[in-house]
Structures are given as structure tokens and as C-alpha cells.
Amino acid sequence: xxxxxxxxxFSILFCxxxxxxxxxxxxxxxxxxxxxxxxxxxxxxxELYVPKIQSEEIVYYFPKIIPGTYSEDxxxxxxxxxxxxxxxxxxxxxxxxxANSWKICNAKTLSKITYLVNDTxxxxxxxxxxxxxxxxxxxxxxxxxxxxxVGYFTEFKExxxxxxxxxxxxxxxxxxxxxxxxxxxxxxxxxxxxxDLVENPIMYSKPNFTAFSANGIEILISVFSPxxxxxxxxxxxxxKEMILAQKKFLKKFNTTKKYSVLIYLSEIKKTDPKGFGxxxxxTITTVVLPEAMGIEELSEQLKDVVSHEFFHIVTPxxxxxNEIQDFDxxxxxxSRHLWMYEGVTEYFANLFQINQGLIxxxxxxxxxxxxxxxxxxxxxxxxxxxxxxxxxxxxxxNEYQNVYEKGALIAMCLDIQLRESSKGKKGILDLMHxxxxxxxxxxAFNDEDLFxxxxxxxxxxxxxxxxxxxxxxxxxxxxxxxxxVGITPSISKTTGNIFLKxxxxxxxxxxxxxxxxxxxxxxxxxxxxxxxxxxxxxxxxINNKTYNLDNMxxxxxxxxxxxxxxKVVFKIKRKLKVLELKGSIILPLETSKTLEATDITKKxxxxxxxxx
Length: 612
What we know:
Blueprint: H1 7-12, E1 30-40, E2 43-49, E3 57-61, E4 79-86, E5 91-92, E6 94-98, E7 101-105, E8 110-118, E9 136-138, E10 141-144, E11 152-153, E12 161-166, E13 172-174, E14 186-191, H2 194-198, E15 202-205, E16 209-214, E17 217-224, H3 232-250, E18 258-266, E19 277-281, E20 284-290, H4 295-311, H5 322-325, H6 338-355, H7 361-376, H8 384-389, H9 406-421, H10 428-438, H11 450-457, H12 460-470, H13 478-483, E21 487-495, E22 500-501, E23 504-505, E24 507-509, E25 516-518, H14 526-531, E26 538-542, E27 545-546, H15 552-559, E28 567-574, E29 577-584, E30 589-597, H16 603-611
Parallel strand pairs: 1-12, 17-18, 18-20
Antiparallel strand pairs: 1-2, 2-8, 3-7, 3-11, 4-5, 4-8, 6-7, 9-10, 10-15, 12-14, 13-15, 16-17, 19-20, 21-30, 22-23, 24-25, 25-26, 26-27, 26-28, 28-29
Helix pairs in contact: 3-4, 4-6, 6-7, 6-9, 9-12, 11-12
């Protein structure tokens, strides 16, 4: 978002400081002290000690944007009372330039800066920060996405950081970093540079974690469940199965030796996070999901979202362009290749599940058809490379969701073509292996060169596909590519969702009262009308079991076992009356598109695609 500065702000940009390049000793460090013990008014105090500065002025920044979010979030908005001091404690002149920048004059004498940090979770209605990239400050949980607590000087971005965190003794700090302090109430972490600090979030909460080894990777799973409904131990078996399957799928692809999953389960109250999902880092993933989910539903959601984040180890954390390698937190230049960073990653997160036997072929086909359907609702004529490069701007940012739909389908089409041209021997994972052999964590490619690089590795047909359908405006004929592996579309009648039709819910929740009610304006299906249920009715119980926000996911999960003609009793509140509505279940039927394996002559190529 572009702001117009007041004349006052404009004038202070021209303070009497003399501009000069800041010099520093590369052997020095920036020390940051974060106090989680003496928290006042829901704000955390931070002290940052700076190396010796040789210039008259310096600017301290908080990120406007961080890697992996593709949105401008302005973390400086959550910083209060930033001050600068010399070694004697004398206050220096500090001028706020914009939402994320503070200019400090007489910087040669600067010894430390101090400020207060507000969290993002409490005020999610006032901003659009994705919850897994946000921050939390509460007595029983501190989610430190470090970019929300620590900023940087441009001149010192490559300088080592030391993070000292004072915390209550009963809280455990879960992270992939190594704590260098053995005391119970203080942790010390060190990183080589600011970018490494940003990639290492920490979650402090009462111990609820498991640690185990999975095929050479040390795994830490830490869970914050405010009502103690979910333990780390209860989700670990499925998580371990998933990570072992991912490692097996990736074969010899180099992965991290340590990986942490930080899971924040939300009560969905007014001050709770509601941006559900996950955010990747090289050795850690932050996850925010509803606590009300049952263990089975939660495990399924974690399988999808955490596997997606884990596969980011392939791209962009390993294979990436200069835009990613030299990421600018305040003047970002976006890459053209979200089709690879997010699309290939999302494709792998689905492909590995059929490849490793975690889902059936039909389940996989349903996922692909759903992505085709979702992609069809987006603007299919915007070149994907242009959308990617301009994803922070209108109208392109409204198309971002398509990276998980069309982006994954681009990867699928490439995979099928590569299997076809190699007679089933090689696919898109082999392409990623080859790219990683040339480019890696510390070696980036030029953004504009990627298609020619891929063409040289593969063949001209792949190059033509990329130019026509990824950088071009031609919609992809998905079914032509699926036909190569014997998959064709069909129409079928399936049982619909009792509580959801397309993207429209039949039920809503009052956050204050926790009551579940029938949506006021939606046209109700025969399931509801047959029982006499009306819009705005409040559901108190079904078959003598009380339901509200706390166990709403139990209701959704249990409804999946309902059958036609089963007897059911709803107790509802309608205006001032309490009614008991009895009847038989009539499940909704929906006409849906499906994909089926119909050409037996393509079975060999299909099996190589799915199981190779």
C-alpha cells in the first residue's frame, strides 16, 4: 500500500545528519535482548546493542514483507516507542520515516536501541498478516516469528546476531536453533546473519512436544493447545509416517538434518488467530489450525499443510533465483517462478501421498479434478510468470491462490510429459534433482534464464510448453495431458456435504455465544427442509449430543457416517422457543466431475507417473 506522507514527515526526512556510508567490523555482532518475563500491557520490551558505527546517521528497519508470504505486511506497525541511546544512556534523536523505518542521528555514538513489540494475533481484524507469519504475546504462549521482534540495519544484514531471551521457567522454547544457555529461564541463540534469524521462529509454551529421528532427520513437534485437547504425542505417529514417506519419495535429494514443526491451535475467539495454514522455513514450519478439530481431522490437515511446507526444502529453499537469494525485506523484487516455488511444491505434497500409498488412486484423481475446477474460476489468460512477478500488485495479487491450483497442474503436465519422453523412467522430481546439482542454497539462477536452463536439461517440447502455457496466455488443455496416462473425465452422482454446498456454508458460528446456527440467507437442501429446519435456527443438540463451537468439528466428522433413512433428532432454538425436530436423514446428491483410468494400454506410463 502506498502512503502519502504529511508535510511534517516530509520535513523530518531532511534532518541535520550528515549522510555517509556506514562502516563496520565484520567480526562484530548484533546482540538482541528480548524480555518475556516483564511483559506490560501485552507488550514485549526489546534491547538491541549495535556494533561501532562510523557514520552520522543510520536507519533501523522492520520488514515490509518476508519470504514465503507474497504480501506486504509492514511489521513496523507493531513497534512502539523506539528510542536510541549512547553508551552513557543519553537519548539520541530518532525520526520515524515510515511504517517500517526509523532514522537515528548522531549514530557514531549509538550504543543501543530499545522498543516495545505488540503482537499481531490480538488485532487480526485490523491487518492481513497470515497467522503463521504473525506473533503472539500471552502468558501461556509466545510465538516469536523473529521478523516481528527484531529488525535490521542495511549495513549490518550480514553481521551475526545473538538473541538472548529471558522467559518464564515453566515455558519451553521450541525451535530448530540450538540454545547455548543451559539455565531454565534464559535462552541464547546465534545466527550468521539477519536472514538466518528470520528463518528461525521460536514458540514458547508449556512443554507439549515429542522428539524423534526419521531416516536421518531429527524431528521436533511442539503443540500449543490452550484447552489441552491435543497432545504432541497423539499426532506424532501420523506425522512420523508422513515424514518417512516424504524422505523415501525424495530419494537422494539433500534435506535438512533437523526439522521442527510448531503448531498453534486456536480457540477462534475474537483475539485468536484465524488465518489457518502453515509457513515454511529451511528447518522449521509454523502452523495455525483450529483446536476444535478432532484428532483425525487435525492429522489429515497436518498431513497436507506440513508436507507442503516440508517440500519447500526442494524449492525455493534449495532451487531459487537471485530474487530469493538476495531477498529485500522492504523493496522486494518478486520472481517470475511461483509456478515452481509453490506449484511444484503443492504437486509434490499430493503426488507423494499416492506414490507412498497414503491415499488411493481415486483420492488422487479427485484432488486433481478439484484443482482443475478451482483453477477454472481464476483468470486463466494472465501469463503465470507475469502474475508471479507482479503478485504484490492489483489485479495480480487476487490471483495468488492459483499458485496452488494451476501451479500444481503445470507441474503435473510437466511430469507427465517427462515420463512420456523418457518412457516412464524420469519425471519432474528428476528435473529438480538436476537443477539442485547446479544450483543450491548458496547458488541462485537468473530469473529470466530458468526456462532455457530447463529446456537444455530436458527437451524442446518442455521448453515450448513453458513458453506457451506458463509465460504465455494460452489456457492449458489439462485433459490432453491426462489422456497420455489413460485418464479421462466423467460425470458421476456423489453424496454432497451436509453442511456445505460449493463454497457456501449451511451453518455459521457466533464467536461470543459459541452457538451453531443455520445460515440466514442460504437456500436449504432437502436434508434441512425434510426435518423442518429453518434459516436462523440455533442447533443445541443432535441425537441428544450437545454441539457448539468447541466440538463443531466432531459434528462435521460424525455427520460423514450418517446414512440415508437413519433416524435423527435435532433440538433447536427458534426465536423464544425450543423445538425438537425428528425425522429421517436425506443425504444431498451432487453431480460432480471426476477423473477415471479408462485406457488400459496406458497403464505402464500411468504407474510410472504415480509410483515411479
